[in-house]
């Protein structure tokens, strides 16, 4: 994810439960907006309903926790992500929400390593 002056772009690869690989990209006024546009191109409706983050530790290696309430293809779910990078915590929360929203007997977005 990258951007400047309020414009962000994201490129991603969606792997379906059937093994199809769909490269997508999107742009928006923020990283999550760009992600929702990219996912829409793969046929996944991802709406962010609420977002919150806070530090769970102190200092130079502080860990951020991100909580994301979203609607994935009409199903309301929560996602949580943690990382020393606020942006990575946000992406992890989005992947967590997508996994829950798309869980239809094994269909999952790959977890971040």
Description of the structure:
With 113 residues, the protein is of the alpha+beta class. 25% of the residues lie in helices and 42% in strands. It has two helices and six strands; from the N terminus they run βββαβββα. The strands form two sheets. Strands 1-2-3 form a three-stranded antiparallel beta sheet. The two termini are 17 Å apart. The mean pLDDT is 86.
How is the quaternary structure best described? single chain
Report the portion of residues in β strands. Answer: 35-45%
Low-pLDDT regions:
none
Question: Considering DSSP H and I runs of 4 or more, what fraction of the residues is helical?
Answer: 10-25%
**SS-derived structural category:** alpha+beta
Average pLDDT across residues?
Answer: 86
Count of separate DSSP helical elements: 2
User: How many strands?
Assistant: 6
Distance between the termini: 17 Å
In the sheet with the most strands, the strands line up as: 1-2-3
Shape: globular
Element layout with pairings:
Blueprint: E1 2-4, E2 7-15, E3 21-28, H1 31-41, E4 46-55, E5 64-72, E6 75-83, H2 86-102
Antiparallel strand pairs: 1-2, 2-3, 4-5, 5-6
